Amino acid sequence: MTAPRSLNVGLIGAGFMGKAHSLAYAAMPMFFWPAPAIPVRKVIADVSDDLAIEAAARYGFQSSTADWRTIVDDPSIDIIDIATPNNAHAEIAIAAAIAGKHIICEKPLARTSSEARAMYDAVRNADIVHMVAFNYRRTPAVALAKRYIEEGAIGKVLNFRGTYLQDWSADPNSPLSWRFVESVAGSGALGDIGTHVMDLARYLVGDISAVNAVLTNWVPERPIQSGGADKLGASDKNASGPKGVVDVDDEVMTLLRFANGAVGSLEATRNAWGRNNYLTFEIHGTEGSILFDYEHRDQLQVCFAGDGGDPGDRRGFRTVFTGPSHPYGDGLWPIPALGIGYGETKIIETYDLCTAIVNGTAVSPDFGDGYQIALICDAITESSAKESWVAVPTVADATGAR
Ligand code: NAI
Ligand code: SOE
Asked: Which of 4, 33, 56, 272 could form a disulfide with 165 if both were Cys (CB 3.0 to 4.6 A apart)?
């Protein structure tokens, strides 16, 4: 066989996502063979030489830099991977698009819809692949839910109920990291985790056309966290230390209307004691129901109307464990229920990114999807302030493009 081509990666931001993406670049060809390409971990950037050098040693990169611009200017780099906090996404992505690099950018695409619009404008006419790293849709069970819906297995979709509940900031002394600062994060639970639910809702059901929302802050100030990378509540709580203002939401709840007539709801909070990564959806259709819970991520609960006979006294949800016969199954583990982890979702994401680059095709979700989600966030913010329904413009409405 001919060896897969190489794609040189420049990764910017060596925190939690720097680790996850590095692992995925290394592992992808071991899972998916023949691999679409061999990602080469060429150069990694962080904010100081010390951090970047340590990251290169730990994550297997050939070199390091404290200035991301040198990566964008390097003609040998094929993929720019943006894994920084949200305030750096736009500047890096726009420079990368101008330099003609393929881009994967962590979610949310940007802090605001105007930043997202500028990023979308920068990539839409560039001959590059652009992807937003909403990896949860690449959980095989989620892709299986999509397959069932497209096959008509649950009939016409009536509703979507999505939640993302965590507890890492439920303690008021859990420190103030960049995720609680509007100028860095853009928003709180809304942009950080609510956007994951929006991505799943759009992927599985379709465009969201209107929202009726409540945004709330529960903890207006927190002890300031030391160091740049977010410790996600795990650091010394330092309750007696200096406090800083939290100027983002802690919780979002919204009703949803979909363009296809379905209805739904979305809830996201990082203040739900006992919930760790409780990303769930339940979808009811005219012919059945689907339930997914990320904490049991290699399972899909399904109930089809035809199950259980007549009068239906055996009807109820049953479990399908994802395995080789399901989406991405040929690249993952050979027996259902061996387990799918967070890392695998990132490996699949890398596989789809590299496949699109090698084939010259588009990939979803792209910067248009990231911009659409930023428009939904705007509508949620406006709805909460006005205490009323607000229509969500489409990207085509917002850009005048048809
Ligand atoms: P983190 O706080 O763990 O790490 C961020 C790293 O970026 C730090 O090492 C920091 O020093 C570095 N950095 C900051 N500004 C930089 C710059 N200008 N140039 C180079 N390096 C810079 O953050 P985390 O959790 O990795 O989040 C990064 C991004 O990934 C965010 O946009 C976040 O929303 C997203 N994310 C996505 C997840 C997902 O499931 N898809 C999970 C966690 C985060
Ligand atoms: C913190 O809420 C966080 O790391 C989010 O930033 C990620 O997007 C989510 O996948 C896990 O939780």
From this structure: 272
